[in-house]
C-alpha cells in the first residue's frame, strides 16, 4: 500500500529524470513529493520540507555535502541514515547499479520505504534505457547521413547510380568486415583529404 | 605476461590518485601480475558504497575513512583496512583575494607561515565580530578528511575555535574555486589541483599548506575490503608491490612531466598538465604575484610516504574525538589500530628487499606549533589541546 503520509524529496540535477521519478511516486499514491535540482541553499530547503525520505542520483557530486548535512543535523529534524539496511545487499546493489541512493529519517520501518526505493530503481533503469535508445537512434541517423554523403561522392566521382554506389559501399564493408558507417566515414575523409578527386 | 590477479579500484580525480594511475599506465601492475582497472568516481560516498557492494576491490580513500567505517560512523559501513598509504601532503588552504588582503594587513607573512597567518586570521575574526559581520565561511571536502582535521588544527592552534568562530561547510572539490569566486565561501582546504586552479584564475591566494601545518603528514590511503584482503592475500601483496614501484616512479622529479601528462588525460583528472606540475614540483604560485618552493609539498614516495603508520590512524582518531565526530573510547583503540595494516605492507615488501621502518608507530612531530603527538597517551594530548584552546580562544 502506498504511504501517502510520507514526505519524499527527490534531488536530481537531471530535470527529465526527476520528473519521471516524481510522476511515478505520485501515480503510486504519494502526494507529498518535492523536487530539488541543485543543492545550493539546500540545507534550509530540506529543513523547510522536512522530508521523511530523500532520493538522490549517484552522479551528483554533492552527496558528500548532503551526508555531512545529515551528520550535523542542525537544520534537520532528526538524524537520517541510509535507507537500505546492511543485510539487504541485493537491494543496495540494485540501487547502486541503477545509479540512485536514498536516505530516510532514522527509525522509519523499512516496509514503509522499500516500495519507494524499488520505484526509484525501476524508473532510473527505465530512464537509462530511454537514453540508450535515444543514443542508438541518434547514431543510426548519423550513419544514414554519412552513407548518403558517401554515396553522393561515389556517384559524382565514378559516375555510379545511387544503388550501384550503395552496393559498392556494402560490399566493401563486408569484405573488410567493417560497419557500413565506418566505410562511409573513411570514404568521406579520403574525399576531403584528396579534394574530391577520388 | 599473464595477469592472474584482477583488481578493480575506484579513485577520485585528484593529484594523489597518481600512484594508482602510474601503476596501471607505466606497467608496474602488469609486471606484478595484476590486471588493474581504474574506475573514476564523483564522490567519496560513491566510493564507499561501491566498496560496500563489492564493485571495487580497492580504492583511493581519505585516510580517516576506513577508521570511520570500522567505528560505524558512516552509512553502509563495511570493514575496511588500509594496508598502504598513497602519499603525504598535497593540500593547501586557499582564501579569497579579499580575505588575503585583510590577513596581509594584519601581519600574515605571505610565505605560507601558518603561525603569522593564523594570528592574522584571529585578528580578522575579532574585528568582524565587533563589526557584526557574519562568520567567515570555510569549506572542506569531507568531514572525515585530512583537510578538515588539518584546517581545524591550524585554526585551533591559532586560538580560533573552529566550531564557534568560523563556519565550516562541506563541498565537492571542483565546486570550491567557483564558490570562492562568487563569495559563497571565504576560503577552503583541499588537495591539488584545486588551489592552483583558483590562483591561476586570479581570485584565490594560497595562505598556507598542509606541509607547513604538519610536515610529512598523511592524506590518502589504499583501502580494501577486509574480507577481500583475507581471501586474496597474494593479489593484495602483488598490488602493494605494484603501487610501491609506481610511487617510487612518481616520486622521481625526472618523471614529473610525464606523470602530469598522464594524469591530465580525460579518463583521469583532465585539465592541463601545467595545472598539475606546481604540486608535483612543490614550486607553487601562491597568487598576488608570490611564489614559494615547498619541499615535500606532495610526496608520493620519500619519507616512507606509503607506509601505513598506526600513529597516523591514532592521530586521526584523536581529532575525530576532539571535534566530536566520534566519542573517545579506550576499547575503540583496538579497532582504530587494526584499520591500518603495516603487517600486510611489510609482508608484501620485505621479500623484495625494500627498506622498512623498524616500528609500526612513531611519536609524531612536525606540527607548526611544536606540539608532539604521542600515540601512547591520546587522553593527555586531547586534554592539553582542550585546555590550550580554552585559554586562547
UniProtKB/TrEMBL annotation, chain A:
SUPFAM superfamilies: CheY-like. InterPro entries: ANTAR (IPR005561), CheY-like_superfamily (IPR011006), Sig_transdc_resp-reg_antiterm (IPR008327), Sig_transdc_resp-reg_receiver (IPR001789), WH-like_DNA-bd_sf (IPR036388). Keywords: Phosphoprotein. One of its GO terms (molecular function) is RNA binding. It holds the Pfam family ANTAR. One of its GO terms (biological process) is phosphorelay signal transduction system. Residues 7-121 form the Response regulatory domain. Residues 127-188 form the ANTAR domain. The modification 4-aspartylphosphate is found at residue 57. PROSITE patterns: ANTAR (PS50921), RESPONSE_REGULATORY (PS50110). This is ANTAR domain-containing response regulator.
From TrEMBL, chain B:
GO terms for cellular component: endomembrane system. Gene3D superfamilies: Periplasmic binding protein-like II. InterPro entries: NrtA/CpmA_ABC-bd_dom (IPR044527). It is found in: Endomembrane system. It holds the Pfam family NMT1_2. The keyword Electron transport does not apply. Keywords: Cell inner membrane, Cell membrane, Membrane, Transport. SUPFAM superfamilies: Periplasmic binding protein-like II (SSF53850). Transmembrane segments: none annotated. Its main location: membrane. It comes from the Bacteria. The keyword NAD does not apply. This is ABC transporter substrate-binding protein. It comes from Stappia albiluteola.
Amino acid at each position: 500500500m502506498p504511504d501517502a503520509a510520507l514526505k519524499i524529496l527527490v534531488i536530481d540535477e537531471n530535470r527529465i529524470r526527476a520528473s519521471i521519478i516524481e510522476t511515478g511516486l505520485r501515480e503510486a499514491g504519494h502526494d507529498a513529493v518535492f523536487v530539488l535540482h541543485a543543492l545550493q541553499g539546500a540545507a534550509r530547503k530540506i529543513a523547510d520540507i522536512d522530508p521523511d525520505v530523500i532520493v538522490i542520483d549517484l552522479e551528483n557530486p554533492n552527496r558528500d555535502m548532503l551526508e555531512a548535512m545529515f551528520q550535523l543535523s542542525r537544520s534537520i529534524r532528526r538524524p537520517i541514515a541510509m535507507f537500505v539496511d546492511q543485510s539487504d545487499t541485493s537491494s543496495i546493489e540494485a540501487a547502486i547499479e541503477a545509479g540512485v541512493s536514498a536516505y530516510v529519517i532514522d527509525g522509519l520501518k523499512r516496509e514503509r520505504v522499500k516500495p519507494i526505493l524499488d520505484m526509484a530503481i525501476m524508473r532510473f533503469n527505465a530512464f537509462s534505457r530511454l537514453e540508450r535508445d535515444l543514443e542508438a537512434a541518434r547514431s543510426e541517423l548519423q550513419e544514414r547521413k554519412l552513407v548518403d554523403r558517401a554515396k553522393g561522392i561515389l556517384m559524382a566521382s565514378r559516375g555510379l547510380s545511387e544503388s550501384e554506389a550503395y552496393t559498392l559501399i556494402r560490399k566493401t564493408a563486408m569484405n573488410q568486415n567493417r560497419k557500413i558507417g565506418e566505410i562511409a566515414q573513411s570514404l568521406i575523409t579520403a574525399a576531403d583529404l584528396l579534394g574530391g578527386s577520388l | 605476461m599473464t595477469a592472474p590477479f584482477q583488481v578493480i579500484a575506484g579513485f577520485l580525480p585528484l593529484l594523489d590518485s597518481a600512484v594508482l594511475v602510474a601503476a596501471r599506465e607505466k606497467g608496474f601492475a602488469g609486471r606484478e601480475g595484476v590486471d588493474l582497472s581504474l574506475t573514476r568516481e564523483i564522490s567519496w560516498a560513491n566510493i564507499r558504497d561501491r566498496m560496500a557492494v563489492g564493485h571495487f576491490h580497492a580504492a583511493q580513500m581519505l585516510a580517516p575513512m576506513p577508521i570511520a567505517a570500522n567505528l560505524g560512523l558512516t552509512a553502509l559501513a563495511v570493514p575496511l583496512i588500509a594496508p598502504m598509504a598513497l602519499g603525504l601532503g598535497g593540500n593547501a588552504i586557499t582564501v579569497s583575494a579579499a580575505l588575503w588582503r585583510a590577513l596581509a594587513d594584519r601581519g600574515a607573512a605571505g610565505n605560507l607561515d601558518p603561525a603569522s597567518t593564523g594570528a592574522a586570521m584571529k585578528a580578522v575574526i575579532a574585528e568582524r565580530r565587533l563589526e557584526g559581520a557574519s562568520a567567515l565561511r570555510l569549506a572542506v571536502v569531507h568531514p572525515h578528511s585530512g583537510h578538515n582535521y588539518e584546517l581545524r588544527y591550524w585554526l585551533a592552534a591559532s586560538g580560533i575555535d573552529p566550531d564557534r568562530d568560523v563556519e565550516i561547510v562541506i563541498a565537492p572539490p571542483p565546486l570550491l574555486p567557483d564558490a570562492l569566486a562568487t563569495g559563497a565561501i571565504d576560503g577552503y582546504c583541499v588537495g591539488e589541483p584545486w588551489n592552483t586552479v583558483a590562483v591561476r584564475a586570479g581570485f584565490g591566494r594560497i595562505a598556507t599548506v598542509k606541509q607547513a601545518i604538519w610536515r610529512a603528514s598523511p592524506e590518502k590511503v589504499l583501502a580494501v575490503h577486509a574480507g577481500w584482503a583475507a581471501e586474496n592475500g597474494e593479489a593484495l601483496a602483488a598490488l602493494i608491490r605494484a603501487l610501491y614501484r609506481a610511487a617510487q616512479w612518481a616520486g622521481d622529479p625526472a618523471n614529473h612531466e610525464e606523470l602530469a601528462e598522464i594524469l591530465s588525460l580525460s579518463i583521469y583528472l583532465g585539465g592541463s598538465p601545467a595545472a598539475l606540475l606546481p604540486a608535483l614540483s612543490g614550486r607553487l604560485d601562491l597568487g598576488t604575484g608570490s611564489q614559494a618552493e615547498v619541499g615535500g609539498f606532495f610526496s608520493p614516495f620519500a619519507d616512507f610516504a606509503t607506509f601505513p603508520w598506526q600513529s597516523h590512524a591514532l592521530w586521526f582518531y584523536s581529532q575525530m574525538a576532539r571535534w566530536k565526530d566520534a566519542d573517545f573510547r579506550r576499547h575503540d583503540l583496538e579497532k582504530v589500530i587494526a584499520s591500518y595494516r603495516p603487517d600486510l605492507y611489510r609482508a608484501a615488501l620485505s621479500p623484495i628487499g625494500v627498506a622498512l621502518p623498524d616500528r609500526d608507530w612513531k611519536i609524531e612531530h612536525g606540527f607548526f606549533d611544536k606540539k608532539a603527538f604521542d600515540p601512547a597517551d591520546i587522553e593527555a594530548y586531547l586534554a592539553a589541546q582542550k585546555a590550550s584552546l580554552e585559554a586562547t580562544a
